[in-house]
Amino acid sequence: MSQDFLPFTRPDIDEATIADVANVLRSGWITTGPKCRELEAKLSEYCGGRPVRLINSATAAMELALKLAGIGAGDEVITTPMSWVATANICLTVGATPVFVDADPTTRNIDLDKIEAAITPKTRAIIPVDLAGLPVDRDRLYAIAKQHGLRVVEDAAQSMGSSWGGRRLGSFGDLVSFSFHANKNITTAEGGCLVMNTEDEARLFEKLRLQGVTRFADGTMDCDVLGGKANLTDVAAAIGLGQLKRLDEFNARRRHLARRYFEHFDRSLGFTLPLADFENSNWHMFQPLLPLDQLKGGRPAFIEAMTQRGIAIGVHYPAMHLFTLFRQRGCKQGDFPVAEHIGASTVTLPLFPAMRDEDVLRVCAAVREVIGELRA
């Protein structure tokens, strides 16, 4: 295996941010504190002044968003099977039922043409997912939600810095969750945030993320709702402050590298390339679909051959309705054929800001070589 191993993603954390983390550690205040408040203020500014609160994961952010919306036992939430499993797990966690709608073959996001057929009297919300950072059509989405009186919890985990109609995601809409996991466009190592509509929602969110407790100036406290433990630390927030300053820089570099892939990828190999959206997407990932019917050994053989050439390949994501958890709830093969095809054939190629232009050429050359071998 090559010593120059190319991961499919890697965070880019500069020395100034590392120094700021060290300062936080030296300060003695390492859990939720002034750095978290500073990052929340910066994120609110980024989102057009809307209330933003930090939390220890985007999964927790979406779970609490459902609670803010009053969604629980007996309710149904429409979402896509083409996502990380957390998107559906949070519905189960609050006692609701996730109702899957197939993916659009072009965008690979939820098929907006099929949502209304899935709406029942029990439907309370829609959770759209911006796969690989490509936004779901917000105009059509919110028109459907408004017509049927549904809340929207945007799973924008992958789309920090994406936009729709010239507006940043998070600056409009209903409840919007962003992820700051280590593989996202900006990171706090682990963490996320929720963008909300009102200060009342934000105050309730604060209680839900930390045991339902309200502290008062005289040293007393009260607990009037059932909360959990999901606060972010100042150590993480210090990383996020350094990252947020570079978000536009990072995403510009990602767009450049994605363009390079489109320029140099051999179209004769039979892959289906992602939608070439350079207006709205933040290019969180670059994901072609393999020509499985032409390959000996399928995707495992492709991943192994690329790994042997020192290039990491990810899979984001299998169609989640085929996981045992959802098969036990009645899902089966053939229910959502578009998502199943995408989930079976997708591969995530390396794409991160510190990549060099020549790394894209290396990946494209390796793909061409591997496909040649697997077709032989």
Sum this structure up briefly.
By secondary structure, the protein is of the alpha/beta class.
What are the main properties of this structure?
376 residues; alpha/beta; Aspartate Aminotransferase, domain 1; seven-stranded mixed sheet; two-stranded antiparallel sheet
Please give a structural write-up:
The chain has 376 residues and is α/β, with parallel strands linked by helices. It has two domains: 15-244, Aspartate Aminotransferase, domain 2; 247-375, Aspartate Aminotransferase, domain 1, CATH 3.90.1150. The protein has helices at residues 15-27, 34-46, 58-68, 86-93, 115-118, 138-148, 199-209, 234-244, 247-264, 298-308, 324-327, 337-345, 357-375, and strands at 52-55, 76-79, 97-100, 123-127, 151-155, 163-164, 167-168, 175-179, 192-195, 213-215, 221-223. Strands 1-9-8-5-4-2-3 form a seven-stranded mixed beta sheet, with helices on both faces. A two-stranded antiparallel sheet has the order 6-7. 44% of the residues are buried. The model has no long low-confidence stretch (mean pLDDT 97).
